[in-house]
Amino acid sequence: MSFRFLIFYLFFVLEILSQTTENWNKKGIDALKNKDFLTAVDSFKKTLKDKPDDAFANYNLACTYSLLLAQCEDIESEVHIYNLIQKAIKSKPSYQKKLLTDTDFVILRGKYYFQKLSGKTKKDILTSITWFGPSPGAYGPMDQFQFKEDGIFIYSKLDMTESNPIGKLEFTGRYKWINDSQLEIQFDDPSPRKEIGKNKNLRVNYSDGKLEIQGFDHQFTDDNDRCSA
C-alpha cells in the first residue's frame, strides 16, 4: 500500500465518520425537540461511541439526562451528567457560558457541582443555592438555610406541632465569610434553639457540596430529595 493511498484511505474513513457523527447528532437534536428522550439518548451515545470527546454530543446528552431527571426518571446518575458537561467544556470552552441560561438545565441550577462547573467560586455558590437538611418523612427537608449576598441568612424549619402540623418557622441572622472552607453565623433573637441563643457565633465547615454547622446534629446539602418526597 503506497503512502499516497494510505493518506487517501484515512481521509476517506475520517470523512465517513464525520458524516455519521453529524447524522446521529442531528437525529438526537430532532428527538430532543420532540421530547423523545430515549431516542435522543441513543443517538448521542452512538456519536460518542465513535467520538468520545465530541463536545456537541456530550453537551446535548447531558441536556437530555437533565430533562429526564426533572421528570424523576431513572438515569445513570447525576454525577454522569456532570462528567458529560465537563467533557463538553473541555472540548469546547464556550459551553461553560451557556450552563446557567440553558433551560434544559433548570433542575440542576440549585446543585453545588453544576454551579461549580459554570465557573463560580465557593463563595458565590454559597448564596446561589439552598442548603437542605435531611428528609425523614413525606414533607420534604426538615430544615434549610439560604444565604444572601448582603451577609444575611434565613433559616427555616418545619413546625410539626399538633396545632400546625405542616407549618414553617423562620429565623434570621448574619454570617461572616472566613475562607473557602469556613464561615461563621450568628442568629438574631429569637434563635431556633435555646441552647444556641442570640449573639453566639457558630462555626460552619464548608466542604464541597455540604455544610456542617455547629449546634446541628445533621449536615446541609443541595439535595431536597424532590423525587421521593
TrEMBL record:
<dbReference type="InterPro" id="IPR019734">
    <property type="entry name" value="TPR_rpt"/>
</dbReference>
<keyword id="KW-0802">TPR repeat</keyword>
<feature type="repeat" description="TPR">
    <location>
        <begin position="21"/>
        <end position="54"/>
    </location>
</feature>
<protein>
    <recommendedName>
        <fullName>Tetratricopeptide repeat protein</fullName>
    </recommendedName>
</protein>
<dbReference type="InterPro" id="IPR011990">
    <property type="entry name" value="TPR-like_helical_dom_sf"/>
</dbReference>
